[in-house]
Design brief:
The protein is of the alpha+beta class. Helices cover 42% and strands 16% of the residues.
Length: 92
Amino acid sequence: MDRCCTMKQATRRLRDIVSFVENGHSVELTRRGKPVAVLISVEEYQSLHAPAKQDFWSALQEFRSRREDETDDCAELLSGVRDTSPGRKVSW
């Protein structure tokens, strides 16, 4: 957590907190010393709620069943199957 503040502080400084969160940080809100909520950016929220990727076997079965129709474009069939995020760093 980048920052922690009470609910009372949050109500007084909401504009500043939203700006802080928009810049990629997170803020934990507390009430009587206990955490009650976390504010995160929309991008982080969307990445947490992204649909789960298919495993290879399910994707292959779907590909084979759709290929029988011969109506779908191959690129369209494979879209969303491959993880396009950059891989880990490797040093040689």
